[in-house]
Each structure stands twice: as structure tokens, then as C-alpha cells.
Amino acid sequence: MLNDLKKKVVEIAKRADNEGLCKHKSGNFSIRDHETGYILITPSAVAREVLKEEDIAVVDIEGNIIELKSDVKPSSELKVHLVAYKQRDDVFGVCHTHSHYATAFAVQGLEIKPVVFEAVAYGVRTPIAKYGRPGTQELANSIIEPLKESDACLLEKHGVITVGKDLEDAYLKAQYVEDVAEIAYCSMVIGGGKLPEAIPQEEFDAVMHP
User: How many CA atoms lie within 13 A of 158 on its CB side?
Assistant: First the structure.
């Protein structure tokens, strides 16, 4: 069932490890099928180098397992993905990463200032989803308001969530979030510990709506 989408989930999960957005079995990725509405998500605690298509769970929007061919469990953060899909009809891909620079901002409870124009890729802002214990409905519900403002948010003390029109789109946004976070951090170091000023919103508006 939905083998092409399973391949895509496995591909993106492995790319995230290879490109440093996740390590040590962390992070999770999902796709929503346009036709059935089913969601395909990575498993919990499976190393990416051995991740296979049969490890990808197919669930409905309430989290009921429709298909799972191997002896694994869906990601412990399934609730987060389900909330993202329930809140946004336009979302068909979700990434949860633990990339180092962006997560450092999340640990501090700081938004990543849009210091370069690449921030437009995910909606300019990275609002903070208030702390919730991993795997809980509290954590899942924390992303509701942030995802009304942006396609990316920081999970306080935890990591990053990005959403997109498909999984490739969500993953690209996760890459941009990390890039902007790294640039902001390096600029802070060069500036003697002072965070750089954000590009004004009117400048982004001029780019997005010329």
C-alpha cells in the first residue's frame, strides 16, 4: 500500500541523518496521501541506516494503524504530526528535526531572527511552541497556534517542526531554518554576543508581494 510514498519517507529520513538535521535515531517524518488521507510516518527507535519501507506505518487521521508490515511502532511523536494535519488542510508533509543550531535557539526559547531573506522560505518567523513532554498530547497541542503564523516553529527545549505542500517542501524548509539559525548564531559570535537585527517585515513583504 502506497509504496511510492513509503520510499519518499525513507529517502527523506536518511537524507536528514546524512545532512546532519537528525542523529542517533532522532527526528521523524511523514507524508499525507492526497487520495486516501492516510498518513505515512517513520517508526520509533530505528536507525536510519537500516530503515526500510516496511518499517513505515500507514495510519488514519486519528492514529489508527492501517498497515505496518514490520515489528516496530510508529514514531512516538505521531500525535504532533496528526495535529499538524488536522490544523492545516494544505499540509501534506511534516518534518521534526533536532538540527543543532535551530535546536539551540529552541533550548533558549528564542525565535530565530530572520536575518537573511532565506527566512521567507518558511514564512519569516519561527514562533515558539511552549514546552511539552515528548510523546504527549500537550506537546502536540503546543504547535497549533505557531503553525497558524508560519510553516516552521521551534519546540521549546526540543527541536523543530516544519510543514509543507509535500515532504520535499517541508524538508527544504527544515534545511532553511537550520541555515538561518547558523547564520544568526555566527553573526552573534562575530558581533561579540549580540544577536543581529532582523530584516524588517516590510522588506519581506516587498519581496513576497512586489
Answer: 24
